[in-house]
Known about the structure:
Strand order of the largest sheet: 1-2-3-4-6-5
Structural class: alpha+beta
Distance between the termini: 49 Å
Oligomer: single chain
Order of helices and strands: HHHHHHEHEEEEEH
Helix content: 40-55%
Largest sheet: 6 strands, antiparallel
Number of strands: 6
Amino acid sequence: MVCETWKAKLDTYLDGELPEAETRTFDGHVRSCQSCSADALARIQMKRTIQVAGRRFTPSAEFRRRVQQGIASKPRRGLSLGWMFALAAAVILAVGALTLTYVGTRSDRGQVFSEIADLHVATLASSSPVDVISTDRHTVKPWFQGKIPFAFDLPELRNSEFSLLGGRMTYLDQVPGAHLIYDVRKHHISVFVFQERSLRLPGRLNENSSAPKYVSFNVETWSQGGLRYFVIGDASAADIDGLARLFKDAS
């Protein structure tokens, strides 16, 4: 089948490891091919299930503390070779703990961007990307009332190059939020809005956070009025920033 060639590269595409030009070509194929879009959606859902299961058994800080206390050497009389080895081991453990904390923070931050990218791809691959179809913000915004535990404002798009396609409910780490889809020069951009306090986000996630290189989309995120916004798409960084500014002004 003609799609076998595409499906052979599907995992590479979902991991963001294809060249930029090939990624754009793949995006267009996934949107137009029902078989490949269904396959992509199934793999993304499996990937997210594995990620959630992996976090479920993450050791707690208390567990780490008890292990470190259990293996810490007790002070001994006099300076001996064994005491020196114990001291060296303690230093290595301390450095290792700091490294794991730093890497863990970076990994958590990358995990958030990866999940947002998965939501964006899965929605565009779906046969029904939006639940409320409208270019009118006064139709889309009221649709979310009673479906999510917060309210948000949509920007006025008059005199801009952006157009609203519609919206749908979504979930990030089992937290409900709004997913809006915009179009600019045939590029689809997703805007995700969540309640900040309900999300378990890494402390260093802020306006200056950049997406990992393996996320093959331009992404911008910020916190405003108790809400966390993500703007993501294969449009240019300038377009992502432009739509983000419209949302910031509207709020």
